[in-house]
Amino acid sequence: MKKIAILTSGGDAPGMNAAVRAAGKFALNTDLEVYGIKRGYLGMLNDEIFKISSQDLGGIIDRGGTSLLTARCPEFKDPKIRAIAAENLKKRGIDGLIVIGGDGSFHGADLLSKEHGIKVIGIPGTIDNDIAGTDYTIGFDTCLNTILDAIQKVRDTATSHERTILIEVMGRNAGDLALYASMAGGGDGILIPEQDNPIEVLAYQIQQRRRRGKLHDIILVAEGVGSAHTVAEELKKKVHTDVRIVVLGHVQRGGTPSGFDRVLGTKMGAKAVQLLLEEKGCLMIGIEGNQIVTHPIEYAWEGQRRNHMEDYELTQVLSK
Ligand code: F6P
């Protein structure tokens, strides 16, 4: 392997820059030539590919977002489009690619590898923490802390007005952000896509709390369950408390990456280059039991995600 490229794809996540930096620096310290691809697969298609120098990697480790820019690229599902994009790598002699993103981005990487023989390593970068084969994705920890900060502020006003406030957090298919924000933020209830928790139960829990003298509630709603607005409308029919909503939205994706996300991004970035130097491809990197591990890339969507049932039960008990 002589030349490799790095891209970030899908939703940005704090800590992606640490992975780009580590992969880039590690590779430049070997004899590899390193390229950056702007705007993910869209940039690969549009030939927005540039040679990375160490200057491009300075001053980014503490920055949220991604210095390589990112985009969603639905066109990449078309094999003809992938062929054009692959040609843009091949004409430069690039035969190794590091893809930092979520499972949609890994799907694209897998196809690129199978169809065009490019060696690809996936690094899980998404705030959602919805990828199998890793306990944590880059960006999850920072996002969790952003939500905790919001909970603390919302609680001040919820207690003052004795209200029920629903906080909608991101997580299309996974409730990890809602679950762990509730656990760490002392939430009073959660709605997540993995668990059927009918509104009736939530309403009953709120009423029980009122009987015990607790006059406010903070409920975490993962967006995968539906909008907090709809949930609030349903809830209002069943309880007599004042119900309000907060939709945190893209605030959750920004901010200075936490130490954890920087370390995770750094370790994964370096590992990706090591794997390419060993001529390995079609792999994803993860962290399991505090160890950096690798799996076939398909494991991201075919494997079993860590079971959160115990943690879910715990938050249910503690929110009583
Ligand atoms: O990156 C994952 C994610 O943050 C999801 O939680 C959310 O549903 C989605 O991205 C939002 O994407 P976009 O910014 O493209 O609207």
TrEMBL record:
Catalytic residues identified in the record: 128 (proton acceptor)
Positions contributing to Mg(2+) binding: 103
UniProt-annotated binding residues for substrate: 126-128, 163, 170-172, 223, 244, 250-253
Organism of this sequence: Ilyobacter polytropus (strain ATCC 51220 / DSM 2926 / LMG 16218 / CuHBu1)
One of the protein's GO biological processes: canonical glycolysis
Main location: cytoplasm
Annotated positions binding ADP: 21-25, 155, 186-188, 212, 214-216
Pathway membership: Carbohydrate degradation; glycolysis; D-glyceraldehyde 3-phosphate and glycerone phosphate from D-glucose: step 3/4
Annotated positions binding ATP: 11, 72-73, 102-105
Keyword hit for Magnesium: yes
Record entry for activity regulation: Allosterically activated by ADP and other diphosphonucleosides, and allosterically inhibited by phosphoenolpyruvate.
Pfam families registered for this protein in UniProt: PFK
Domain Phosphofructokinase: 3-276
HAMAP family xref list: Phosphofructokinase_I_B1
Keyword set, alphabetical order: Allosteric enzyme, ATP-binding, Cytoplasm, Glycolysis, Kinase, Magnesium, Metal-binding, Nucleotide-binding, Transferase
Compartment annotation: Cytoplasm
GO cellular component, as recorded: 6-phosphofructokinase complex
Protein name: ATP-dependent 6-phosphofructokinase
GO terms for MF: 6-phosphofructokinase activity; AMP binding; ATP binding; fructose-6-phosphate binding; identical protein binding; metal ion binding; monosaccharide binding
Subunit structure: Homotetramer.
Cofactor: Mg(2+)
